[in-house]
């Protein structure tokens, strides 16, 4: 009996020792989580990556791409028949612009998909992509993996010289004295998610607002003439967005900033202190009501120095429309893969909780 007990005790000790030895010698890499097929491993830095821009409208002018001097090797294409050989595919996501009802793409293992969006969520129409997984995002949102928005604000390489500033301030003062009208708005989309039309109705009760285009009673011929007329005659211009969505500031604002002869009034979901040059816009969010905004505009319209100060930002800053970030995308593709999970439903990421209803009406 005692001999059997010792035998079983010895076997138990041997089992414990073997388990301990296996724990110490077991290869550590076998414990690691197997990466998902959508994640790439470190690429060969000398490899030329193929990047496909899929279903992009012709106005992006990708048929004849400019010569690029990127740090890494990449080639770009719009030929959809290359989808299976491409290392990355940038997918234009707005179905209504393309008349698309189904996404005819199959993602192969190791391929990177990029979600490209430029319309605000209420007007995005991305039904063909619902439930689709993407690795990166390329949008106007500041939390995108690759930013591509409507406005790029940057410091001038060389600030305006003293003589340039003197000439410019004289031009601004002369322009100010010739302006005879208060607020202009050119618009053809009349009923919007942001209810901007309702805000303008309220604003018109307190200050002159001239509305041109399909939503107003005034006409001014072609758009080129309209732009000149606004810069010449009006002190303020309404750059109101059709939605109140996170980081959304469209080309309407860019155009008026680039001219730098009229002060824009903005209403939207963007952080305009981040998007625009300092002290370059008037934000409706800074006023408790349209009436309070109107009183401020009336005061500013009669103060030459205060008004022209809002146009001086051009001495230190410049605004431009960003170009498609080919090289940034190329370099990112050559980097090591990201550890985070992909966007399992990019349309949900784009839409959920990113827009809000107006609170100022």
TrEMBL record:
Enzyme Commission number(s): 2.4.1.-
Fucosyltransferase N-terminal domain span: 48-150
Biological pathway: Protein modification; protein glycosylation
Location in the cell: Golgi apparatus membrane; Golgi apparatus, Golgi stack membrane
Gene3D superfamilies, alphabetized: Glycosyl transferase family 10, C-terminal domain (3.40.50.11660)
UniProt similarity note: Belongs to the glycosyltransferase 10 family.
Protein name per Swiss-Prot or TrEMBL: Fucosyltransferase
Annotated organism of origin: Elysia marginata
Upper classification of the organism: Eukaryota, Metazoa, Spiralia, Lophotrochozoa, Mollusca
């Amino acid at each position: 009996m005692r001999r059997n007990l010792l035998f079983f005790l010895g076997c138990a000790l041997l089992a414990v020792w073997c388990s301990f030895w296996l724990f110490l010698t077991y290869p550590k890499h076998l414990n690691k989580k197997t990466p998902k097929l959508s994640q790439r491993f470190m690429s060969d830095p000398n490899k030329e990556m193929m990047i496909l821009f899929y279903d992009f409208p012709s106005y992006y002018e990708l048929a004849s791409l400019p010569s690029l001097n990127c740090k890494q090797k990449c080639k770009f294409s719009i030929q959809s028949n290359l989808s299976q050989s491409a290392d990355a595919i940038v997918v234009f996501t707005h179905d209504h612009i393309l008349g698309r009802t189904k996404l005819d793409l199959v993602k192969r293992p190791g391929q990177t998909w990029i979600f490209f969006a430029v319309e605000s969520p209420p007007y995005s129409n991305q039904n063909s992509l619902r439930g689709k997984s993407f690795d990166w995002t390329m949008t106007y949102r500041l939390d995108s993996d690759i930013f591509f928005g409507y406005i790029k604000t940057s410091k001038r390489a060389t600030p305006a010289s003293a003589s340039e500033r003197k000439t410019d301030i004289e031009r601004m003062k002369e322009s100010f004295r010739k302006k005879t009208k208060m607020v202009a708005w050119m618009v053809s989309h009349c009923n919007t998610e942001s209810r901007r039309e309702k805000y303008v109705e309220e604003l018109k009760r307190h200050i002159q607002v001239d509305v041109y285009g399909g939503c107003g009673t005034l006409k001014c011929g072609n758009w080129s003439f309209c732009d000149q007329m606004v810069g010449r005659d009006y002190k303020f211009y309404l750059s109101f967005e059709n939605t109140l969505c996170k980081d959304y500031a469209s080309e309407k604002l860019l155009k008026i900033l680039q001219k730098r002869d009229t002060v824009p009034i903005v209403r939207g979901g963007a952080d305009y202190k981040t998007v625009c040059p300092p002290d370059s816009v008037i934000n409706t969010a800074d006023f408790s009501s349209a009436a309070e905004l109107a009183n401020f505009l009336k005061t500013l319209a009669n103060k030459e120095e205060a008004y022209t100060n809002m146009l001086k930002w051009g001495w230190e800053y410049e605004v431009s429309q960003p170009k498609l970030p080919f090289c940034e995308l190329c370099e990112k593709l050559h980097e090591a893969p990201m550890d985070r999970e992909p966007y399992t439903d990019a349309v949900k990421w784009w839409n959920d909780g990113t827009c809000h209803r107006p609170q100022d009406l």
